[in-house]
Design a protein that fits this description.
The chain is an alpha+beta fold. The chain is built from two helices and ten strands, in the order E-E-E-E-E-E-E-E-E-E-H-H. Helix 1 packs antiparallel against helix 2. The protein starts with 7 loop residues before the first strand and ends with a helix.
């Protein structure tokens, strides 16, 4: 009798749309308590996630998603639901758009004195820099 391979179902949902729903072998992401990795048979979990790099492995191929702050819910059945403000799959990142976002955020930070605008520009710059890093890594690895 062959043993069935245990896997997880990963759903990443942002305010805009459901970005993905796939059967995966493992998921790693930044949480408020540090990096977490979820494997099949993981205990039930509800945790806050931080802006950063969500990685998942499917058939020995690692893929990446840039996520903003939100929550992750891991059910005892292996359903991993990540609810975030925004998410972008690595394959959808446009280097030209990221470069424009970096430039716009830097200009705002240089010229604005409005605290709210500065905070938003800082968050935008952080996300754009992360997207650039992931786009460059993805390009090098050929994902």
């Amino acid at each position: 009798m062959s043993e069935e391979k245990k896997q997880l179902t990963l759903r990443v949902i942002s305010q805009e749309r459901k970005l993905l729903e796939e059967v995966v072998d493992r998921v790693s992401m930044p949480s408020t308590q540090g990096e977490i990795t979820i494997l099949p048979k993981h205990a039930a979990l509800l945790s806050e996630v931080e802006t950063g790099h969500l990685r998942f492995t499917k058939d020995n191929n690692e893929q990446s998603v840039v996520i903003s702050k939100g929550f992750v819910d891991v059910s005892p059945t292996g359903m991993v639901t990540v609810l975030v403000d925004s998410a972008t799959h690595a394959r959808d990142i446009s280097v030209e758009k990221v470069q424009a976002a970096i430039k716009a955020a830097q200009e705002t930070m240089t010229h604005s004195e409005d605290r709210r605008e500065l905070l938003m520009a800082e968050a935008s710059l952080k996300r754009a820099m992360l997207e650039m890093k992931i786009a460059q890594k993805t390009k090098k690895s050929g994902i």
